[in-house]
């Protein structure tokens, strides 16, 4: 069988199985990945060692490192402290808490990456909803959306932006000045739209609100000495994330170094409690980790056989030479495709395509930076960034932050189905892309 046909059949069958949820998505992803390798669509070397077709270990070890950090920090009571503080600032009113937590998530995602942010914010959210006897799903799903919107606005907020910046030779400030404003507009509209969905449906019993407002934040601290160490280490890790480019360290390296320091900080406490030093690793969400491993191999196989590149070619081929047409086809096409497959390999396939398009439009320009910065090429780069980042809100598997949030909710006893997430995510995705369309039109055309 033709490798392209085989890859599409395997991926389609796996996607259908994930959507129907008859089998756990981790099993489906690993089985599909194993089929891709055993049937020769990708080799084992490509699956495990290729930067283009294989597992993205930067994402994998970033997740592992941050999960270890969170497991250790949880034992100090810090998340309970933050939960009480947030609830009191919002007067223990559910909708105000959704707005506050979503806004904080968006801001942090612009400074860090969106996966790290939801890993930090989800435990706080679960603690608040537990104390107020609320369903956490209306809080967690908007946070996943907010993390993707906030991450769109900066170079470091979402991995596709880092990849685009590298290929298009764009700076942090260029991303901030061009995408920052539209991300803030989309976030404002998103928060306003939440009122019509949750504003009048969530209520808290008066006695629970009163008991929450009466709590004192510091009384929730369980281990003051470990808390002090963790706060300093969290600050150090966040500084590392902010300056990882200047330090020439990948975010995964920062996360692993931070996790090692956290385990050293908690070493004495584990001995006092008679626990194993490595019990923090036991609580890592290994189902999520292995789902990502399988998903990277599945999508990498589509990249290798050229399926994603062919789709990308079709997006821009019939508008070649028409800057506005190409820009908006890339915007909408990237959004739809990024909701179906992970946006990282999609952007990897699109980047060289846009460079080739620039060469065909400007054959006499030889300097690379001048070529990719041509006035009729720049809108296409921004359209790719907006489509890839915001399109991830459409489905559970569209963005890494979505997968993490859904698995955290499942672990807490609140499963979120593929269709329930999409019922909320698809309108958010199309609304944000429509705003992006208008923004790009007004700014560049």
UniProtKB/TrEMBL annotation:
Principal localisation: membrane
InterPro entries: Arsenical_pump_ArsB (IPR000802), Cit_transptr-like_dom (IPR004680), Diverse_Ion_Transporter (IPR051475)
Pfam families in the cross-refs: CitMHS (PF03600)
Entry keyword set: Cell membrane, Membrane, Transmembrane, Transmembrane helix, Transport
Domain of life from the UniProt record: Bacteria
One term under GO cellular component: plasma membrane
Compartments, as annotated in UniProt: Cell membrane
Stretches that traverse the bilayer: 26-43, 55-74, 94-122, 176-205, 226-246, 289-308, 380-406, 418-442
Membrane-topology annotation of the record: Multi-pass membrane protein
Occurrences of domain Citrate transporter-like (ranges): 15-387
GO molecular function: arsenite transmembrane transporter activity
Family of the protein in this entry: Belongs to the CitM (TC 2.A.11) transporter family.
PANTHER family in alphabetical order: P PROTEIN
Protein known as: CitMHS domain-containing protein
Source organism of the structure: Nitrospira tepida
């Amino acid at each position: 069988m033709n490798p392209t046909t085989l890859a599409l059949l395997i991926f389609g069958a796996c996607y259908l199985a994930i959507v129907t949820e008859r089998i756990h998505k981790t099993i489906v992803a690993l089985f599909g990945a194993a089929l891709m390798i055993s049937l020769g669509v990708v080799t084992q070397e490509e699956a495990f060692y290729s930067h283009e077709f294989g597992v993205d270990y930067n994402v994998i070890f970033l997740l592992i490192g941050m999960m270890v950090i969170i497991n250790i920090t949880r034992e100090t009571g810090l998340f309970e402290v933050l939960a009480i503080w947030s609830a009191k600032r919002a007067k223990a009113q559910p909708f105000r808490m959704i707005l506050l937590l979503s806004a904080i998530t968006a801001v942090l995602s612009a400074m860090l990456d969106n996966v790290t942010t939801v890993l930090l914010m989800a435990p706080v959210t679960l603690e608040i909803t537990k104390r107020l006897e609320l369903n956490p799903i209306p809080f967690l799903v908007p946070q996943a959306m907010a993390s993707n919107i906030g991450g769109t606005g900066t170079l470091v907020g979402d991995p596709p932006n880092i990849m685009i910046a590298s290929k298009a030779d764009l700076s942090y400030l260029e991303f901030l000045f061009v995408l920052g404003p539209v991300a803030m507009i989309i976030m404002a509209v998103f928060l306003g739209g939440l009122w019509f969905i949750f504003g009048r449906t969530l209520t808290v019993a008066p006695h629970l609100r009163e008991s929450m407002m009466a709590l004192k934040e510091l009384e929730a601290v369980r281990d003051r000495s470990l808390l002090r160490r963790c706060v300093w280490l969290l600050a150090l890790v966040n500084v590392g994330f902010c300056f990882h480019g200047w330090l020439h360290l990948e975010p995964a390296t920062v996360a692993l170094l931070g996790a090692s320091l956290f385990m050293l900080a908690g070493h004495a406490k584990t001995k006092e409690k008679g626990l194993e030093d490595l019990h923090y690793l036991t609580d890592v969400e290994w189902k999520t980790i292995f789902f990502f491993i399988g998903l990277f191999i599945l999508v990498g196989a589509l990249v290798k056989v050229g399926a994603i590149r062919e789709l990308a070619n079709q997006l821009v081929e019939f508008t070649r030479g028409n800057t506005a047409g190409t820009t908006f086809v890339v915007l909408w096409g990237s959004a739809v495709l990024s909701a179906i497959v992970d946006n990282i390999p999609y952007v990897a396939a699109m980047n060289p395509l846009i460079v080739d398009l620039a060469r065909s439009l400007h054959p006499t320009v030889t300097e690379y930076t001048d070529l990719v910065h041509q006035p009729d090429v720049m809108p296409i780069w921004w359209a790719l960034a907006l489509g890839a980042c915001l399109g991830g809100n459409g489905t559970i598997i569209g963005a890494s932050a979505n997968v993490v949030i859904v698995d955290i909710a499942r672990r807490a006893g609140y499963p979120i189905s593929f269709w329930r997430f999409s019922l909320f995510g698809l309108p958010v995705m199309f609304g944000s892309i429509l705003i992006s369309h208008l923004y790009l039109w007004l700014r560049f055309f």
